[in-house]
């Protein structure tokens, strides 16, 4: 068996060669506009390889240490990776195979050409060392091997490919890179593959603002690969890449338009009035959100159940100006998104001249929830059972994570681990695309009834596989506080009264709603919102999920005792105490959820500014949560 030390040195040396053959192929296809589709597909495979390669790099951008550890821990898999490197380089450095299999001929770049050039001979000579990489490869041959790598790399930098074959032969070049990446994943452990799958979203957005056409072509390439493959996992992978790029491009478009003082065009049929809906009391979720029946949609006599979130319009703001601003939010949220983002699809806005105080954002619900809502049809006898709103609501209404924690026993550890990973992964994807949620709280995480075998909602089971992120209205949501404060050590009269009113409210607002926000932001809400503040909010939710206590229940109701009305500004001392309470509670997670989960949550909840690569930290935290198992 090959020596692990030799495998490490060989792989480290061959990385630049693999990247060079990717580059040579890209240059070939980029030079001809007719071959741009091939260029995009090779660029996509290179992005996948770059995402995989980045997982091996250390702080010095060197792969030595991680590869060495992998080679000693899993020598057979490391040897498999080396074999894939060698196989690709042999194929793309062999003049005979290049011409016969792919319709390519290597030739010298003109500025490096000499009178006695013989590129095929040089390629055969300088790539011959690759044949020495077999099961007997060991450290004794490394000095000569490393010299050959340098010579081979220097040669490739002076050579280019020229097309001499047909298009179907060029197709085989792309397929070869696709197979190479697929085989690398087979020889890589699940943790590294999961990190690479996260990192690919960052890689494909390189140059999003400077060269927006490049990501768009990568999206087209991903759609092509999605249609071409029969592997369901690969279909999902490529489809998610295409959707993610599309979502990111919509964000970029809105940013550009808003910078010019413009808003995106919105079809008139996407702007509804209140008359288009039936707002029934049983569908109400809270003061600013409700389910509603959208009538005569998508066709006459049909009905769809939707979520409407009401955005208050301050008296100091012109309602038309607010409407134009919400068009940007609609434009982004109506774009296709990968399932991992957990963001709902926006169907339109509710704007009525008769009510200038609120504008609604209409969101699409899961297919088994939104469809088949029976209604009476005018002038016809409808054989279907016409259910009352109360009956329909009992079957289709969502339950928030907050409600679950307050009313139900703790979910199984396995369910909580998966949910935590989904939420943190969703946040990472949002931040990678350039989106910030700003209101991640347990009451904004909804679970709808699962789908039964006959396709109907099953109100006895909630769908924990597909959490629904809500909370896109700009106002802070006021939630019901009855029974919540019963967990507090002190009775209701100890809740702080409204300043200036001289009395205690029967149902005060709970300070825990603000405790989801990073203390730094609570000190000064005029600060520019940062990704770290979102990460803090997710950390607070993961804390609740792990302890199965809402924030106001922590430390025997310590935060809950500082409840106050929305019109009361909290003191800095209150904010500091809330942060300390949350921080202390984080240390209780280890004995319930394990030390890995506890460390992840505490990193999310850190009060110190996070310099450097926050996306990299989020990616690492997602990978760590993947190790948490019941």
From TrEMBL:
Highest taxon in the source lineage: Eukaryota
Cited PANTHER family: HELO DOMAIN-CONTAINING PROTEIN-RELATED (PTHR37542), PRION-INHIBITION AND PROPAGATION HELO DOMAIN-CONTAINING PROTEIN (PTHR37542:SF3)
Protein name: Protein kinase domain-containing protein
Species in which this protein is naturally found: Podospora pseudoanserina
Source organism phylogeny: Eukaryota, Fungi, Dikarya, Ascomycota, Pezizomycotina
């Amino acid at each position: 068996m090959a020596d692990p030390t030799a495998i490490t040195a060989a792989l480290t040396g061959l990385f630049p060669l693999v990247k060079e053959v990717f580059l040579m192929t890209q240059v070939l296809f980029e030079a001809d506009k007719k071959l741009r589709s091939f260029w995009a597909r090779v660029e996509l495979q290179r992005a996948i390889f770059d995402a995989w390669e980045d997982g091996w790099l250390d702080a010095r951008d060197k792969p030595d240490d991680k590869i060495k550890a992998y080679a000693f821990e899993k020598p057979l898999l490391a040897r498999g990776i080396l074999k894939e490197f060698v196989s690709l380089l042999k194929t793309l450095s062999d003049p005979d195979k290049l011409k016969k299999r792919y319709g390519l001929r290597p030739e010298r770049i003109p500025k490096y050409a000499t009178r006695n050039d013989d590129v095929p001979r040089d390629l055969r000579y300088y790539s011959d060392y690759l044949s020495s990489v077999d099961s007997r490869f060991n450290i004794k041959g490394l000095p000569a091997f490393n010299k050959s790598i340098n010579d081979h790399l220097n040669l490739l930098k002076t050579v280019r490919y020229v097309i001499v074959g047909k298009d179907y032969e060029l197709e085989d070049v792309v397929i070869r890179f696709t197979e190479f990446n697929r085989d690398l994943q087979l020889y890589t452990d699940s943790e590294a593959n999961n990190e690479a799958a996260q990192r690919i979203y960052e890689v494909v957005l390189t140059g999003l603002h400077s060269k927006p056409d490049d990501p768009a072509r990568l999206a087209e390439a991903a759609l092509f690969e999605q249609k071409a493959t029969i592997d369901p996992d690969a279909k999902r992978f490529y489809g998610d890449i295409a959707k993610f790029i599309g979502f990111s491009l919509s964000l970029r478009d809105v940013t550009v338009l808003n910078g010019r003082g413009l808003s995106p065009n919105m079809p008139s049929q996407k702007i509804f009035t209140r008359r288009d809906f039936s707002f029934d009391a049983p569908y109400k979720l809270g003061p600013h959100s409700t389910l509603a029946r959208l009538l005569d949609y998508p066709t006459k006599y049909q009905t769809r159940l939707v979520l409407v979130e009401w955005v208050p319009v301050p008296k100091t703001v012109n309602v038309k100006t607010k409407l134009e601003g919400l068009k940007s939010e609609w434009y982004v949220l109506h774009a296709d998104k990968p399932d991992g983002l957990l963001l709902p699809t926006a169907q339109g806005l509710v704007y009525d001249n008769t009510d200038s105080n609120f504008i609604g954002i209409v969101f699409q619900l899961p297919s088994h929830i939104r469809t088949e809502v029976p209604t009476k049809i005018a002038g016809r006898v409808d054989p279907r059972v016409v259910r009352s709103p109360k009956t329909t609501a009992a079957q289709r209404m969502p339950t928030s994570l907050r409600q679950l924690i307050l009313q139900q026993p703790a979910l199984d550890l396995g369910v909580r681990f998966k949910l935590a990973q989904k939420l943190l992964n969703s946040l990472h994807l949002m931040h990678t695309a350039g989106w910030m949620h700003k209101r991640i709280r347990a009451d904004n995480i909804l679970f709808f009834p699962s789908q039964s075998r006959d396709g109907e909602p099953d109100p006895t089971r909630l769908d924990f596989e597909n959490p629904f992120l809500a909370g896109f209205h700009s106002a802070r949501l006021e939630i019901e506080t009855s029974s919540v404060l019963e967990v507090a050590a002190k009775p209701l009269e100890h809740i702080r009264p409204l300043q200036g009113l001289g009395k205690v409210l029967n149902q005060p607002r709970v300070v825990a709603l603000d405790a989801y926000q990073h203390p730094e932001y609570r000190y000064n809400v005029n600060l520019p919102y940062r990704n770290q503040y979102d990460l803090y909010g997710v950390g607070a939710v993961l804390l609740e999920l792990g302890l199965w206590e809402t924030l106001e229940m922590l430390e025997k109701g310590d935060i809950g005792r500082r409840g106050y009305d929305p019109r009361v500004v909290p003191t800095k001392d209150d904010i500091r105490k809330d942060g300390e309470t949350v921080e202390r509670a984080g240390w209780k997670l280890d004995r319930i959820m394990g030390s890995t989960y506890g460390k992840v949550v505490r990193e999310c909840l850190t009060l110190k500014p996070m310099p450097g690569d926050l996306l990299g930290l989020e990616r690492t935290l997602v990978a760590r949560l993947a190790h948490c198992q019941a």
